[in-house]
Amino acid sequence: MSRKHLVVPVFAGLALLTGCGAAQGPPTLIDPAAAAVQEQPTKPVSVNAAGVAGVGTVLTDQSGKTLYLFTKDSTNPPASTCVDDCAETWPPLLTSGDVLGTGVDPKLLGTITRADGTKQVTVNKWPVYMYAGDSRPGEANGQGLQDAWYAVTPEGKKVGAPAEPIAVVSTEIPDFGNALTNQDGMTLYLFTEDGTKPPKSTCDGECAKKWPPLLTTPDADLEIEGVDPDLIGTVTRSDGTVQVTVGNWPVYLFVEDKEPGQTKGHGVGGVWFVIEEEGCKSTAPVEKSDSSEEADEDTGY
Predict the structure, then answer these.
(1) DSSP structure class, residue 194
(2) What's the pLDDT at 20?
(3) How many Å from the N-terminal Cα to the C-terminal Cα in the chain?
(4) Contact predicate 119/113, CB 8 Å
(5) Would you say 225 and 231 are in contact if contact means Cβ atoms under 8 Å apart?
(6) Sheet harboring 223-225: ordered strands across?
(7) Which residues touch 170 (CB under 8 Å, ≥6 apart)?
(8) Burial 32-70 (b: 16+ CB within 10 A, else e)
(9) Which contiguous run of DSSP H or E holds residue 168?
């Protein structure tokens, strides 16, 4: 609900105070700008990993709009050079509160103060922006424009920068057993409500924020270690991105796993399980934890 702020001399109040024996002083004016700042609630913004067709996994804002970095900005120290007309085309992602994240390391998130005093979100020290040419979530029409604007990856890098090859590795996790991991040692999972004949992912939207799919590109070489290459494949998701499959199961990461060797997603909701080198769900005992219970509520699975 909008409010109107008026510059009102406090004469009436002074008259009443004078009648009660208070000393009369000069009238005080209420600054509407200051009043607006005081009444403005702090609203956190969210930075989330999501798949965008033709681009891959990128970061988006809380409404699903793709986020970009500008290579002419500075990261040491972080500073934005996109102002005035530039900022009309490339609106900075601003915040007046906390910066939340899903599918991105919270340590990569920060803010800078722009020349106009507003606070802009940074990822890996890069100030981030939306693009006026993206009319709805899932678009990345600003990718590569002017050879200076690029969608941002969950690692805080520009899309198209050299990246470590995607890998599927058989790993023995202490006190757990065999599990498949990606190139960073992060555990991979299957979702029993997905399809395998043919392979099909049913985890989209909010689900995919908690369980980011392991994505690749059609022409990429996958590094495979300790797994039968015949078990490895891909499936095209509903958003056009390409997801790795093992034993026809689309495979995922879990955002609650913060370090290699963690398996916090195993058994969540009775439908998420670590995937083994044979392309089957792990038979390791399921240990219910507070994080798993919270994940159940957040994902609905």
Answers:
(1) S
(2) 44
(3) 36
(4) yes
(5) no
(6) 177-181, 167-173, 223-225
(7) 178, 179, 180, 225, 226, 227, 277
(8) eeeeeeeeeeeeebbbbbbbbeebbbbbbbeeebbbbbb
(9) strand 167-173
Residue 294 confidence (pLDDT): 46
Query: Where do we find the tokens 């409500």?
Result: 193
The pLDDT, as a whole number, for residue 164 is 63
CA dihedral 276, 282, 288, 290 (to 10 degrees): 20
Cα separation, 218 vs 207, whole angstroms = 24
d(CA 213, CA 201): 9
Smallest CA-to-CA distance from 200 within 245, 231, 239, 240 is with 245
Residue stretches of the chain with pLDDT short of 70: 1-43, 161-164, 219, 288-301
Residue 104 CB neighbour total at 10 angstroms: 23
pLDDT value at residue 232: 96
Q: What is the pLDDT of residue 229?
A: 95
**Residue 113 CB neighbour total at 10 angstroms:** 11
Please state the φ and ψ torsions of residue 211, each to the nearest 5 degrees. -125, 75
What angle is formed at CA 51 by the lines to CA 45 and CA 56, rounded to 5 degrees? 120
Please count the residues of the chain. Answer: 301
Q: Are 277 and 225 in contact (CB under 8 A)?
A: no
Beta carbons of 229 and 223 less than 8 angstroms apart: no
pLDDT of residue 146: 87
Q: How far is CA 48 from CA 7, 109, 127, in A?
A: 41, 11, 15
Question: HSE (CB half, 13 Å, CA atoms) of 179?
Answer: 27
Give CA angle at 90 (215, 159), nearest 5°: 25
Residues 221 and 167 sit within 8 Å (Cβ to Cβ): no
Q: Smallest Cα–Cα separation from 301: which of 150, 224, 192, 214?
A: 192
The SS3 of residue 28 is coil
